[in-house]
Specification:
alpha+beta, Alpha-D-Glucose-1,6-Bisphosphate, Chain A, domain 4, seven-stranded antiparallel beta sheet, 3 helices, globular
């Protein structure tokens, strides 16, 4: 059981400053894939409200919203964290922690999906697609840095 309680960790090297990467991550609706929402066909956007305690949610074209969690750390451009009950029961959320550190050619981003407990650990295997989503984030952040429009 111990291994399943360990956080899911990914490290990315980005060719942009930490502030650019932080802002790009916080603009989650621009890079999040609609397939990872409650209804891809009606999704308008995904939002992280930019403040401690801010909501994380998806908004649909008809105006209804589906909650994903709330912001637990907001310290631009260094750290962003949020409790997450995306694809989990809200009474046992996990936590996403993202840190942005300057590096020689840009920044290093450490992504950690932790907060696994005996109550939510059985759902941890549902989160194997983080590399796909984080590649979308990386492309968006680097395109934003270069001034290119994402494809």
């Amino acid at each position: 059981m111990t291994e399943i309680l360990e956080p899911i960790v990914h490290t990315l090297e980005l060719r942009c400053a930490p502030a650019t990467a932080f802002d790009a991550y916080a603009d989650i609706g621009a890079w999040w894939h609609p397939s990872y929402t409650s209804c891809a066909e009606t999704l308008a956007t995904v939002v992280i409200e930019p403040r401690l305690g801010g909501r994380v949610f998806e908004r649909h074209r008809d105006g209804h919203e589906v909650g994903w969690g709330w912001v637990t750390a907001w310290t631009p451009p260094h750290r962003l964290a949020y409790a997450s009950f995306l694809a989990q029961p809200p009474e046992h959320p996990s936590e996403i922690r993202v840190t942005f550190t300057p590096d020689v050619d840009g920044c290093r981003v450490r992504f950690e999906h932790g907060g696994w407990t005996e109550e939510n650990a059985a759902l941890r295997p549902k989160f194997r697609d983080w590399p796909f989503l984080l590649d979308r984030f990386r492309a968006f952040a680097e395109d934003r840095h270069s001034g290119r429009s994402p494809a």
